[in-house]
Amino acid sequence: MRVQVNGETHELTVGTTLGDLLAQLQLAPERLAIERNREVVRRARWAETEIAEGDQIEIVHFVGGG
Known about the structure:
By secondary structure, the chain is mainly β. It has one domain: Roll (Ubiquitin-like (UB roll)), CATH 3.10.20. It has one helix and five strands, in the order ββαβββ. It has one helix at 18-24; strands at 2-5, 8-11, 32-36, 39-41, 56-61. A hairpin with a 2-residue loop joins β1 and β2. The longest helix is centred in the first third of the chain and has 7 residues, at 18-24.
């Protein structure tokens, strides 16, 4: 299935969760926020939230500093 991740098209297997996507992209979840179709998904739900055809996923990295 095709989805948009941060504006880029990605091909994913049906049943892929947000947690699976982070693993595939080799992203550490500690400093991330994920939005699916313009709705923030709580970290506790990433492992169970399946991505669907046509979803738009935005992954935001928090950056510290001052």
